[in-house]
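Dissemination and training. As part of the outreach component of the grant, students in the summer workshop were shown how a complex can be specified as a set of sequence lines and then modelled as a single object. The example used during the hands-on session is reproduced here so that future cohorts can follow it. Participants entered these lines:
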Amino acid sequence: MPYYPLLKAPGAQGWATLCNFSPNNWEANRGRQQFINVTWATEGHWASKTLGVLLPGELRTINASDVADVVPANALALLSLTHVSLPAQSNALPKLDVAQTSVPAWRATLGLSTSVAQTSYQGELDSFPPQGSLLTFGPFLQFGEGIKNHLILLNLENSPKSRSAELEIYDTAGLKPRGRFTVRSNAANCIRLDELGVEPGDLPLFICRGMAAIPLYFSSSMDGAFLSLEHTHPPASLVVHGRRWEAQKLLKNRWFAKVAP
Amino acid sequence: MISQKIQRFRRAIWTWKQPLMRLPPLVGAPISDLFVWRSSGEWQTLFELIDIASLFEDADGPQDVTLIAFDEQGLRVLEQKVILQVNSRQTLDISSMIGRAYGEKGTFAVFHSRTPSSITKLGSFLTERGYVSYRYRGAPLRAYVHGNFDAISLGAGGELQLLGGSSLLRREYSLQYELQHGVVYELGIVNPTSTSQRCICKLVSVRTRKITGAQVVNLPPGGIQLVPLRVDKSEPVRLVIQSHLVMARPIVFRIQNLKLDVFHG
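and obtained this result:
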């Protein structure tokens, strides 16, 4: 069972709607009351707090402001639903022993809002192995007066200790470097993409050799009236059936070799 | 031990010979989602085309995709080759390509002409699950959503095969989302199976668990319907879709104060 992060982006507030009902009626349909928890990394350990309970069949929206006095401003707030409350402190990310589904995965609505608009996707966040890496191609940049584009790189690992890695951004066609940024584990790393010289026909290539992450793209108009949020696929999603994880490895090896760090 | 066997049997009722998506009949056949297009004075649909095969292996010469569009009944209305630009992004204006002669909604598929040998050697198929964006009422920003299903494949002779699996028993898909009062929702439901499907879209009160509204949607193979949803009272409501689709995951268009958000279930 995954965690549900409260997203962060300039000029917008993160929120998540948690659901205590299965997305289907055949994998996990036994309704039980669940605890709503928030978990965050602090001072070398994971801290958790129970925010309330959610009855079977219910939904609850948690805004970033709801946990602002619990979770430090620089920490990623991770929501979860569990049958038993989580320990107040732990050295490893608490394992969430609750019902799971796969068709589809049990998700929450993860969103960003301004005072006049909102955008969301159905998502979740599982912990990544520390030896993981990221390769993705991002065609989501939008262009126009006052439009801002951000990459939100979501990472979660079992260890509460924050570590850093380098995110490299290239133009896929010419392999021209577009930017290099330090990103942190257990964080929603927010990176402005508008000043990298990316043109409308360019396909940006994002590589992080030292950390796996979910790449989200957040676009907003200057007044916050129009928003867009979506993630790109991991390379394994470019193929289906067979040994698709090997296809992912092939693609990563090819592009990691093309652009030496 | 016995309880494990019972559990396995219970699951088998839902999974035995009922894959989410079937294998294409031809090795190396390209697969695509059935993306939803909308085209009208208010709606514009765009697609981000990327040469996926060239990301895996360089090609000898220019490659292309075959873009096939269908109307809401699943009937083919457009077939067009598009030359790919290697390692670039081509934003296709799907609404302009289809025009206004085939209604205001339908689906389209994008089939890549080349599958790298490194992919076929793995027993895998190249699939287009790419990125669609919608512009609503000339907004300065488009709302993006990614593809979801490996819905349809193209054979060597141009024959199409719908790959979606059907369920023996009727299933429920519950959207993990709170529908709100004062917001316009339109639910895009696509039938990726080769048989007609009947879907019942039920609005369920979170507080009382009673059904507050229901709509029946009949979908021919490859067909699509946009189902308008309105929450009448200011109480939390959720959506349940009952059907024989293995996963009746919809695309949700959310419009509030003329601002569009779009996402997959």
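Helices of chain A lie at 244-258. Students were then asked to discuss how this feature might be tested experimentally.
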